[in-house]
Amino acid sequence: MSELYNRIAMLCKQQGISIGKMCNQLGISRGNLTELKMERIKTLKTDNLTKIAVFFNVSVDYLLGNEEKPAPESRNGLSIKEQKDIARKLEKMMDELEESGDLMFDGDPASEEAKESIRNALAMGLEYARKVNREKYNPYKNKKKKD
Length: 147
What we know:
Distance between the termini: 22 Å
CATH class of the largest domain: Mainly Alpha
CATH superfamily of the largest domain: lambda repressor-like DNA-binding domains
Number of strands: 2
Order of helices and strands: HHHHHHEEH
Oligomer: single chain
Number of domains: 2
């Protein structure tokens, strides 16, 4: 079995997903991985390697065995850039709420605990929206297979 196939199989196992399901989600032919497993091919096409690396949040170099460690893990499946974008939006939203004077409960200003709860709820909503939009607008979703 090829080292590349073993790494992909290990990542699937760690995520609790079958190789077939990963292939379906990414639009990759299962036959390509079978060929890789049987060592009839030595590697996958670059676009397929990239899809797999993004899916598991590792680098292509890691998949190919050129790196010992995977790319840094992101929080909640979001990249570092996405996390920073969400943090900026969250701060802007909280500032606007505080400046508008809308953070009141029964005429009293919101407590720090209440503000933190609102912040956490907004953060979860923004993270969820980012994940949904990533799936909805996935550039590989509607791409025709050339295999």
